[in-house]
Structures are given as C-alpha cells and as structure tokens.
Design a protein that fits this description.
The complex is a heterodimer.
Chain A lengths: L3 H23 L9 E2 L3 E3 L1 E17 L2 E4 L6 E6 L6 E2 L4 E7 L2 H42 L4 H41 L6 E5 L4 E6 L8 E4 L3 E7 L1 H4 L7 E6 L3 E10 L15 E8 L12 E18 L4 E3 L2 E7 L4 E13 L2 E6 L6 E3 L10 E5 L9 H5 L3 H14 L1
Parallel strand pairs in A: 1-21
Antiparallel strand pairs in A: 2-20, 3-11, 3-15, 4-10, 5-7, 6-9, 7-8, 9-10, 11-14, 12-13, 12-15, 13-14, 15-19, 16-17, 17-18, 18-19, 18-21
Chain B lengths: L1 E3 L2 H6 L1 H10 L2 E3 L1 H21 L16 H37 L4 H29 L11 H7 L3 H8 L3 H17 L4 H25 L6
Parallel strand pairs in B: 1-2
Classes of the chains: A alpha+beta, B mainly alpha.
Chain lengths: 411, 220
C-alpha cells in the first residue's frame, strides 16, 4: 500500500498542476494557441435588399366626379342613365327643359368659341416652340462644336420637346371638351326646349339622387386606387413616392406608388384616441389586373428603403459583442480572421454589409472560437454534402498517399 | 490458478491484480480484451477524425481548391488518422511487452496482460483529452493534465513543448502501474525494472517529439 503521505503529496501535486495549467490556459493573454472550429461557412454575395412595411388597404375609385343641376336654369325632365351604368365622355346624363333655351344655346356656343380660341392659342404656341428648336439646331452647326456646348444644345432641345409634348396633351384635353360641347349643342331639341347634359368623364355612375339634391349624379372613375390608414408611428416611416406592392386575393402582385399621405388625421385629434392618417396608392396596372373591384380589401407592402448591389452575408454569420459587429473571414492561409464590420439594412435572414467585406469572400457561420486573438487556425468536420465521388477519383494516388500520411503522422 | 482479464477490477484493485497475475498459471480472455481495445481505439480515432480534430494544417486548402477536392483530401486525411488508431495500440502493446519480456524472465502473456492495462488507460486518456480538446480548442500538446502548457509558457521550441506535452498525470500513473506490476512479476532488482519502464516511455516521448518537430506537414 502506498503510504498515506505519498497519497496526499501525489494528490496535492496533481491539483497544483491542473490549477497552474488551467490558469495559464484560461488567462487573458494566454500564450497557448486555441484552435477554432468551423462547422459551416458561406460566401459573401452581392444583392439587393429591401425594407418594407406592411399595412392594409381597400380599393377605391381614383376619382370621384360630382355632377350638379342648377334648378334655376331649367325644369328637370329625366335621368338618362341609371346607377351602375358605365359612361363615357359625351354620354347623356339627364335632360331638362330650359327656362331660356336661347340663352343656354348662346352660352354653349360661347363656351365652344372660347375653347376654340384656347386651342388655337396653344397651337400657335406649339408652332413657336417648334421653330425655336430649328433655331437652336441651326446654332449647333454654326458654333464651334465643343462637347459642352453640344451637350447644352442637346439638353435645351430636349427641354423644348418636353414642353411641346405637354402643350399637345393640353390641346387634346381641350379638344375633347370642345367636342362634348358641340354634341350638346347639336342635341338641343329646339321644339321642346330640351337640353341634355352630357358627361365629360369616363367611369361608372354610382349614385343618382332622385330627389334632385345636389350632386344629382356621382360618377366614379373606373381606375382603381388603394386607400389605407396609417398609425402615428407608421406615418413617419412612409413618404410619397415610395414604391408599394399591393396584394389582392386573386390578382397576385400589383405595383404602385404612394401618391398621397394626409397630413391631417382622419378624425378629430383627441387625447384619448390614437390618430390615424389616410394615404393613397396609385396603381400601375397590367392589362389583366384592371378588374379590381371597388371595396376589396388588399394587403399593401410599402418599400421604405431599398439598397441595390450591396454586399450581403447571412445574419447567422454576424458575431456581435456589445455594439461591435464582426465576421470571421476564412483566409487563404487557412486561418480565421476576426473582421470588424459596419452593417446596414437587414432583410429577413440577409444582412447588408456597408464596410468590412467584399463579395466572394468566405465567412464562417457561428464558429466555435476559444481565444481573443484576431487570427486563429481552425478545424473543419467532414462535410458529407460536399463529398463528391469524382473529386475523390480525380485526386490521384500520389495526393491520396500524401494526405493519408499527413493524417497518420498527426497522431 | 487461472487469471481472467478484468480491466475495471484490475485497475481499482491493482495490488490484487498483480498478486493474481503473478500466481496464475494461465491467463484467459486476453485476446478478446485486446481485440476490444483495438476496436475502441479505432472508434475513438474515427470520431475524432469525423470532427476534424487536427486537420487545421490542411484548412488552408479550403479557399484554394474546390469544395469537392477539399473534402476528398480531408477524407484521406481522416483515413490516415483512423489508420493511426490501429497502429497506436499495436505499437504501445506489443513492442514494450517484447522489451520487458526480453529483459526479464516473465512469461510473455503476463507481460502482455500488464501492458494491456497500461494501454487501456492511455487510450481512455486519449478519449477524454479529445473531448476536452474539442470543447476548448486545444492542441495535442496543451492537455491540462500534462506539462505541455507550462512548457509552452516557457519556450517556443517545438521539440521541448511536444516532449513535455506527453508527460501527463495519467502517464505517470501508467509508469507506476507498470513498475509495480513488474516488481511483482519479476525477481529482478526494482531499480532496474524502474529504469526499464522509464526508458521505454522516454523513447516513445522522444520519437514523438522529434516527429512533431520535423513537421511532416511541411511536405504538403
């Protein structure tokens, strides 16, 4: 039997050894290399990221037009449309017996003349703009052609062409109005003093006030738009112009833009109630999507932020200590390098990296790190998902022997 | 008297084990036990290889070759490690037994039995160390039970740190076990027997330290 003092001495020495070793191993500036373990890794990518915010909305008509009847100009005769009818510009809405048919006719003709004048004036303006372009282009060939002045001339021409386009649109609208007036004039039933009011809009008749309270007819445009409501926190996040994606039950995804945000809440501000702010989304409809029913409830995704072509890593590759964010980059020399990052947008499981990484780098996903050093060597387990029979076959006997030997001698 | 090899019983009551072994005319079950030992060793090294222990020296290939090629190389590396799992018990079992048998008059089978106990302990230590190493990211020479950590704090010399890294508490226990066992089994002077045991361990430590120092992986 071992003598008692031997046992005590032996145990004491063992405890001492283990303690000293533990201290040397675990102390802050330990000289002992600690090997990290990488069980998973990913390549950094380039991609687009979006930050979106979800809310709900309802389909409403883009425009609402109200038609009024002034009882002093005539006696109402009858409506020529019914609720639910589709109307186009020029369609008759209602008939009335004019108290002063000649006066009314004169007024219509006056209106037609006025429109005629306006149209002519615009056409003159357009001609002027066209000749202005010719002058500019003539200048181009006479002046010494250096790049800056050529660009300037080009830009000027483009601006003028834009104005011409605008003016032409205005002219179209005026001509449409004029043709409606003409139709009205030709519809005048001289014998019965009947005048017909024609629609200047396209849409659907949604309300006819049979008791002749004004507005007598309400026409809603057929173009749908979305109306929704934002809470106080939400209203700060959205801006007019942000793209919005609308999802309706059977229609799939419809693209749109936030067109309006009310700066005044829906109901009277009150201390006890949360204020809500209405907003509108203008839709860019594809052909198949135009039958969106008014009143349908939809989901709206407003894209509040979009980063294009950013360097991204999976969120799992991010290592956070306090406020510092790091990633562990796998280097060419088989080491793991702790790299500080500045991060940006996060979309789901993808994180934008503003600074610190470039694309096509390899980062370790949640490695086991046992040391404070910035650079550590690392082991990797056998990854069955990457094993390939062809790669094994392609290795060659010499390589195979080399690696077997290296593994063997590692002991 | 027949001695039946029982590992746990023998380790817990070593003096009884020595006495019975010395008195015995026949040793039973040794071959079985040795086969189990080899299987255990292969298993332990296979698990270690699966987790990539020690393959940090080829990690530099991750970025330079395709994933398939890297994995293929890793697999053959692992195969090498498993091969070592076969050689390790073989080297530690038969050569020292031969050595002790040739220098004493103890029957070979008895010396082999004693050595079986020694190697079982060493392989158990290996298994425990592997677990610790995985948890703490330790290198082979940085076992908390050996002198390797202290050596690393004092020098950068790979030979020195590797040599002392093998002198562990368990190794000392094994030396003690072999020494006491031989004393029981043989009539030679205890001092000589102690030198025999110490010398074979020193030889293995030196060879291993040399192999680490040469850094065969540089051939890669």
């Amino acid at each position: 039997m071992m003598k008692k003092w031997q046992i005590i001495a032996g145990t004491a020495a063992s405890v001492l050894l283990i303690s000293v070793n533990s201290y040397l191993l675990l102390k802050k500036d330990s000289e002992i290399d600690r090997i990290s373990y990488v069980s998973q890794y990913e390549e950094t990518k380039r991609g687009d990221l979006q930050e979106a915010f979800h809310t709900e909305g309802v389909v409403v008509p883009l425009e609402e037009h109200k038609v009024y009847f002034n009882e002093q100009i005539g006696a109402f005769s009858q409506f020529t449309v019914a609720e639910g009818d589709t109307v186009n510009p020029g369609d008759p809405l209602f008939e009335y017996e004019s108290f002063n048919i000649e006066e009314d006719q004169r007024m219509l003709e006056f209106e037609a003349d006025k429109l005629e004048e306006q149209i002519e004036s615009i056409e003159d303006h357009i001609d002027e703009l066209r000749s202005f372009i010719i002058v500019i282009e003539a200048k181009e060939s006479t002046e010494t052609a250096d790049e800056d002045s050529t660009n300037f001339i080009y830009n000027s021409v483009v601006d003028v062409e834009k104005e011409i386009y605008q003016k032409e649109l205005e002219r179209e609208l005026l001509m449409a109005e004029a043709s409606v007036i003409q139709k009205q004039i030709s519809n005048i039933d001289q014998q019965n003093n009947m005048l017909t009011t024609l629609s200047t809009y396209a849409g659907t008749v949604t309300d006819i006030n049979t008791s002749l309270g004004n507005p007598v007819i309400t026409i809603h445009s057929d173009t749908p738009s979305i109306k929704g409501s934002l809470t106080e926190e939400e209203v700060d996040k959205i801006e007019v112009g942000m793209p919005a994606h609308v999802f309706a039950a059977d229609e799939g995804k419809i693209n749109g833009i936030v067109s309006k945000i009310n700066t005044y809440p829906e109901s009277e501000p009150s201390l006890n109630k949360e204020s809500t702010y209405p907003f509108s989304v203008e839709l860019q409809l594809e052909e198949e999507q135009e039958s969106l029913l008014t009143g349908k409830h939809v989901n709206v995704n407003v894209v509040t932020n979009e980063i294009l072509d950013a360097v991204t890593i999976p969120v799992k590759a991010l290592s956070t200590t306090g406020i510092a964010k790091n990633a562990f980059v796998i280097g060419q020399d088989g080491t793991l390098q702790k790299t500080p990052l500045t991060v940006g947008l996060k979309m789901g499981q993808t994180q934008e990296v503003v600074e610190g990484l470039s694309s096509e780098q390899l980062v370790a996903i949640q490695p086991d790190i046992h040391s404070e050093n910035e650079i550590t060597s690392f082991n990797t387990p056998i990854w069955t998902k990457y094993t390939s029979k062809t790669a094994i076959e392609n290795l060659g006997t010499k390589q195979i022997a080399k690696y077997i030997f290296t593994g063997f001698i590692q002991r | 008297m027949i001695y039946e090899v029982r590992l746990i019983k023998g380790l817990l009551h070593p003096y009884d084990f020595f006495y019975q072994l010395q008195k015995a005319e026949e040793v039973r079950n040794l071959t079985n036990r040795i086969v189990f030992l080899f299987i255990a060793s292969i298993l332990i090294f296979t698990i270690g290889a699966y987790f990539g222990m020690g393959n940090d020296i080829i990690s530099n290939e991750l970025t330079s070759v395709s994933a398939g090629e890297f994995e293929a190389k890793k697999l053959f590396f692992a195969l090498g490690q498993i091969l070592w799992g076969v050689c390790y018990p073989a080297l530690l079992l038969f050569i020292p037994a031969l050595y002790f048998w040739s220098l004493t008059d103890i029957p070979y089978k008895k010396v082999l039995t004693l050595q079986f106990f020694a190697v079982s302990i060493l392989i158990a230590e290996k298994a425990i160390f592997m677990f610790l190493a995985f948890q703490l990211g330790l290198d082979k020479d940085s076992s908390p039970l050996s002198l390797g950590i202290i050596a690393q704090s004092l020098t950068d010399n790979l030979f020195v740190t590797s040599f002392f890294g093998q002198i562990s508490l368990i190794a000392i226990f094994v030396i003690w076990l072999q020494y006491k066992g031989l004393v029981y089994l043989s009539e030679r002077k205890p001092r000589v027997l102690f030198l025999m045991v110490l010398s074979i361990h020193l030889l293995y430590w030196l060879i291993s330290a040399l192999l680490s120092y040469i850094k065969f992986e540089k051939l890669l």
